[in-house]
Design a protein that fits this description.
heterodimer; A: mainly alpha; 12 helices; 0% strand; globular; B: alpha/beta; Rossmann fold; 2 domains; four-stranded antiparallel β-sheet; 13 helices; 22% strand
Chain lengths: 368, 334
């Protein structure tokens, strides 16, 4: 019965309540329906239909009750920090931060990264010795009091070198990732948003960069560099790394751009920059964050690769990459020389990947 | 006339060729009036609305002709910046699927408040208060508590109410509702339509209701424009059209409605499929499916004849059928 009402609920002046048809100027009087009035032919004898407004009203109440129940449930379950509806305006980022603080994965990885950054800034807090203080007489010796990690092939203290190596590795990883992410996501995002000629040009340009093999490119480009700082290495990574992020952010922006809510925002008068920053970017940022955190690990490893090939950092710079490559031939005789810097590298990479994972989850309200 | 669309033409460039999605559509909406635009998928009803709103994707879309007069100004001649200030403030749109039309990473309060921040330059705090007010206005219970919820925490009907609230935020003069109830179940449909009609009356807005649901139309519309293959095939005041359709396509649509007193009988269906827009048949686009088609229908495109004689005729009725008189009389006899 309700279904038929839906298919031909002709506006009847006699139908009570707030039926919209009522205001129709010149609407036909009740008796004006010829028998050929097929779509609404069965209406005049359809008494209950006059109660249509009332039925709709009941439905209103029902769904209102339902929604109020939802509201109550939400209030009754405010979460560990009582994060129910609060008086102040909430934003995506403040909500994400509240989520992150409760996430053990985030807390552990953030503490680890904080610790790494601390020893990168002040290595002498943990290792007061000089990483370049080496004595060949102690080469490859195992751990002993005062030198818990033993000595490397040159007789340098592995513990001191591992602590001091954090600085270069963290600097290379963080700076290269920041550079790559900023450059790549801005270029890719704009290309995806505006499309057209610039998008085509940028896409071909990324193809060109993709065609350059990283190791070969490193050998060619970095072999001419004489500086012994980390910056040429970082610059090289940004140069070859941005196309990857650019592609991902371009794709994510194009996907997000097609969502109905972007169209809806446009229909309600949002400007281009507002649509991009407020509606598209937050919905496109997750894949970029994930790839960037994974890339951070690979950049630290790439620094090690380049150093191993002799074109990255060069001794006397202290880095995990240099130590790993110099220890690798002796893995059977003196595994400790390899394991400590490699372990530090693995923990660092893991911490950043876990952080990226937690941040991505926190930025997706649907997972809350 | 609040909105006057004249001879609008929109094309899409596709791999298969040029698709003429809108082919000389004209309609008008007065303040406080509801125009229902009826048609199957692909009949051009949504594309017309997108062109009016100025949110057509160009490319692949292209407006090749016509005028869109809104309060006397031709919108097609405005600069994009001026156009944008019209959108949202003077005309707004309600979309079919409220879940995908709301940004999942922003709270509903943020999205409602955004209207005031963008167009009125309000502070965030004031905008939030306005958002609560709007949610009350569309009868969302416990609005003050729910303003900080995300769209996925609302039910379908509640989300569509939020979309309606967003469209109404700046009290526009014209609202285009593109199948606002299609994604909702029947009981909620009725509530949302009632709400929309009530608010429209309250604010005396013009409303263009795009739908393929004849039931929804009968309830709220003043006038109907039936579209087929990018053209308007019939336009009429709602009662007249239901009483006696003057185009075989409209008659087919009305006959395809399931009816209780026809229980057990086979349901009528218009035979065939709507034409591909890249290969619209010559002559009347409906002729391959039309039970009344004759030779002239295969060659001559029928203009929108004024339906001024016969049952249920009157000023403002039009039918794009060579044999509208026969059709009208046939309809009235049934």
């Amino acid at each position: 019965m309700p279904d038929t009402r839906r298919t031909h609920p002709g506006p009847e002046p006699e139908a009570g309540g707030r039926r919209p048809g009522e205001r129709l100027p010149g609407g036909p009087p009740p008796g004006d329906h010829p028998t050929g009035d097929r779509p609404r032919g069965n209406r005049p004898d359809d008494g209950p239909d006059a109660r249509d407004g009332a039925i709709a009203g009941t439905g209103f109440g029902g769904s209102m009750d339902l929604a109020a129940d939802e509201g109550r449930t939400l209030e009754d379950d405010p979460g560990p920090d009582g994060g129910g509806p609060s008086g102040r305006p909430r934003s995506l980022w403040s909500d994400a931060w509240r989520d992150l603080r409760r996430n053990p994965v985030f807390v552990v990885s953030a503490l680890l990264i904080l610790f790494l950054v601390l020893i990168a800034l002040r290595p002498t807090l943990l290792a007061s010795g000089d990483p370049l203080d080496c004595d060949l007489a102690r080469a490859q010796e195992g751990s002993r009091p005062g030198h818990p990690f033993g000595f490397n092939g040159q007789g340098c203290d592995v513990y001191t070198r591992t602590v001091h190596g954090a600085r270069t590795s963290v600097t290379v990883g963080v700076c290269a990732t920041l550079g790559v992410t900023l450059l790549g996501s801005v270029l890719g995002g704009l290309a995806g948003f505006f499309g057209g000629l610039w998008d085509a040009l940028l896409s071909r340009l990324t193809d060109v960069f993709f065609a350059i093999p990283v190791v070969l490119g490193g050998l060619v480009l970095l072999s001419v560099v004489t500086s012994n700082s980390v910056w040429p290495v970082i610059g090289f990574m940004v140069l070859l790394g941005w196309p990857q992020i650019s592609r991902i952010s371009r794709g994510a922006v194009i996907t997000a751009k097609q969502h109905d809510y972007v169209q809806a925002a446009r229909a309600l008068g949002a400007s281009g920059p507002r649509m991009l920053l407020r509606h598209i970017a937050p919905n496109a940022i997750a894949p970029v964050i994930v790839v960037a955190t994974i890339a951070l690990g690979t950049y630290i490893a790439l620094e090690a690769t380049l150093s191993y090939l002799g074109v990255g950092l060069k001794p006397p710079t202290v880095s995990w990459g240099i130590d790993i490559s110099s220890a690798s031939p002796y893995i059977r005789n003196a595994p400790h020389m390899l394991l400590w810097p490699a372990g530090a590298l693995a923990v660092t990479v893991l911490a950043f990947i876990m952080l990226g994972d937690a941040v991505r989850d926190a930025l997706d309200p649907k997972l809350r | 006339m609040l909105l006057d669309v004249r001879d609008l033409r929109v094309e899409f460039t596709t791999r298969e060729g040029v698709a003429k999605a809108v082919n000389g559509v004209s309609y008008g909406v007065a303040a406080g009036e509801t125009l229902a635009v009826l048609g199957e998928s692909g009949s051009g009803k949504s594309v017309t609305a997108q062109a009016v709103m100025g949110i057509l994707d160009t490319p692949p879309g292209r407006i090749t002709g016509g005028e869109i007069l809104f309060k006397g100004r031709d919108l097609l001649r405005l600069k994009e910046e001026e156009r944008r200030s019209v959108r949202g403030a003077e005309m707004a749109m309600i979309f079919q699927d409220a879940l995908s039309s709301l940004n999942p990473v922003l709270t509903v309060g943020d999205q409602l408040g955004e209207m005031f921040v963008v167009h009125r330059g309000m502070s965030k705090k004031d905008a939030r208060a306005k958002a609560v007010e709007l949610m009350d206005r569309v009868r969302i219970p416990a609005a003050a508590q729910r303003v900080d919820d995300y769209p996925h925490q609302f039910s379908g009907g509640m989300r569509q109410r939020i979309m309606i609230a967003m469209a109404l935020a700046l009290e526009p003069d014209l609202i285009i509702a593109d199948e606002p109830t299609t994604a909702l179940d029947v009981t909620v449909q009725a509530q949302v339509m009632d709400l929309l009609a009530e608010l429209q009356r309250e604010y005396a807005m013009g409303l263009i209701l795009i739908t393929h649901d004849l039931g929804v139309v009968a309830d709220v519309a003043d006038r109907i424009a039936v579209m087929y293959a990018g053209r308007i095939v019939e336009t009429a005041p709602v009662h007249d059209l239901y009483k006696a359709p003057a185009h075989p396509y409209t008659r087919g649509l009305l006959d395809s409605i399931p009816r209780l007193d026809h229980k057990g009988r086979e349901l009528y269906a218009i035979k065939g499929l709507p034409p591909s827009l890249t290969a619209v048949p010559p002559g009347c686009p409906f002729h391959p499916r039309c039970p009344m088609a004759r030779d002239v229908c295969r060659t001559d495109v029928p203009p929108l004849h004024a339906v001024e004689r016969g049952p249920a005729s009157g000023p403002g009725r039009g039918s794009a059928c060579h044999f509208w008189r026969d059709c009208l009389e046939g309809s009235a006899r049934r």
